[in-house]
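Backbone-to-sequence.
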């Protein structure tokens, strides 16, 4: 694939200080999107990559959280729901997304060293992680809990069906996403109503309470452990050896809690904090602990990844849900399709665990699929057909990074 095409997508979605995921469906700045976007931009325009992350962290809350949306004031309020008026939090939402930012900051620095950039963002990243490891430890087991499916980044995952069943859907709102996407590709009206109810209840609690939905997600916590390792490397760069050691110890504690709490029968499952039960669904979030270099159960998890449930190496990308499940859907948002960011993360994980052939195969497939689908948001893992919006920023950005690798 020619890097020029991917670069054009990122230029087209650039607002001047940040990048929108897409011009139509997602017209603001999203938290984990920006981290993945910066990882690609570092090869094309390091200053833009730094600006992307600095803009996001300019909206960090006093308690350390990094909000999942930073709203663009030049975008009409009716362009996206729920918009800033719903959240009542100024220019941001009140939810969060997975903590991939330290890894992005480190990657940007490695591509174009800038000690001032690291020194500016290190305390912000540290506060972000402290919020997750402290205020979000709802279960008291050393794992961060999410309070809304949107916080997982995998909004419509089947793993949330059980915990969401307790939530009464809101009504009377207008969905803006269906203006830009096929209804068959998006969450159902009933699920969206539950999302809105949860968000409103959390807002009305002052963004403090754990309500009906409190879940320990293996994907979120694997990314948190990986982010602590990245933060340790940043501390090393800043000549802070004691801080680096603290971050490595923190990463080890999260990894230990993951295996003790969420591992069962060859897989990592989400845990419903309200009931204490593991959710039964095999989703791609359960594969993300493979990012951790000293994972004792890596061979068993790799066997699940390459087995019939995910077919890694025999399908396009990494399916977001169990291929053998009766409710697997290759087109609907996070209920089966493959996403480039999950494929990119698993590519890293495969290299870390001594699987270079499978990693190379996955890399080539991700690049081919991005090119043939016009950088689609996600794709059918069985056919490679594109779904969701096109010219999606993280698809283009991570293609750039894979080409550079």
């Amino acid at each position: 694939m020619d890097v020029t095409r991917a670069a054009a997508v990122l230029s087209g979605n650039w607002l001047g200080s940040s990048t929108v995921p897409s011009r139509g469906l997602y017209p603001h700045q999203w938290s984990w999107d920006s981290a993945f976007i910066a990882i690609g931009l570092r090869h094309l325009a390091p200053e833009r990559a730094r600006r992307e992350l600095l803009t996001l962290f300019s909206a960090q809350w006093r308690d350390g959280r990094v909000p999942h949306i930073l709203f663009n004031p030049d975008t009409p309020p009716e362009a996206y729901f729920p918009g800033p008026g719903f959240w009542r939090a100024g220019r941001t939402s009140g939810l969060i997304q997975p903590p991939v930012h330290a890894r992005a900051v480190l990657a940007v620095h490695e591509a174009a060293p800038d000690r001032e950039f690291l020194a500016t963002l290190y305390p912000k990243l540290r506060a972000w992680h402290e919020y997750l490891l402290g205020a979000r430890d709802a279960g008291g087991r050393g794992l961060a809990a999410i309070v809304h499916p949107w916080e997982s980044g995998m909004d419509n995952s089947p793993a949330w069906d059980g915990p969401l069943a307790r939530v009464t859907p809101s009504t009377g709102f207008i969905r803006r996403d269906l203006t830009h996407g096929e209804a068959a590709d998006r969450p159902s009206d009933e699920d969206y109503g539950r999302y809105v109810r949860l968000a409103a209840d959390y807002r009305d609690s002052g963004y403090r309470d754990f309500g009906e939905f409190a879940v320990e997600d293996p994907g979120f916590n694997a990314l948190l452990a990986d982010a602590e390792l990245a933060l340790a490397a940043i501390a090393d760069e800043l000549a802070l050896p004691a801080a680096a050691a603290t971050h490595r110890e923190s990463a080890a504690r999260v990894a230990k809690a993951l295996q003790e709490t969420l591992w069962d029968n060859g897989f990592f499952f989400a845990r419903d904090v309200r009931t204490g039960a593991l959710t039964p669904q095999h989703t791609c979030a359960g594969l993300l602990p493979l990012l951790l270099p000293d994972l004792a159960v890596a061979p068993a998890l790799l066997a699940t990844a390459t087995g019939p449930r995910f077919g890694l190496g025999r399908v396009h990308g990494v399916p977001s849900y169990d291929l053998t499940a009766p409710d697997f859907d290759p087109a609907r948002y996070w209920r089966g399709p493959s996403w480039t960011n999950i494929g990119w993360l698993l590519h890293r994980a495969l290299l870390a665990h001594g699987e270079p052939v499978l990693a190379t195969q996955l890399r080539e497939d991700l690049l081919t699929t991005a090119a043939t689908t016009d950088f689609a948001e996600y794709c059918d893992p069985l056919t490679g057909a594109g779904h969701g919006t096109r010219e999606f920023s993280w698809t283009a950005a991570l293609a750039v990074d894979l080409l550079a690798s």
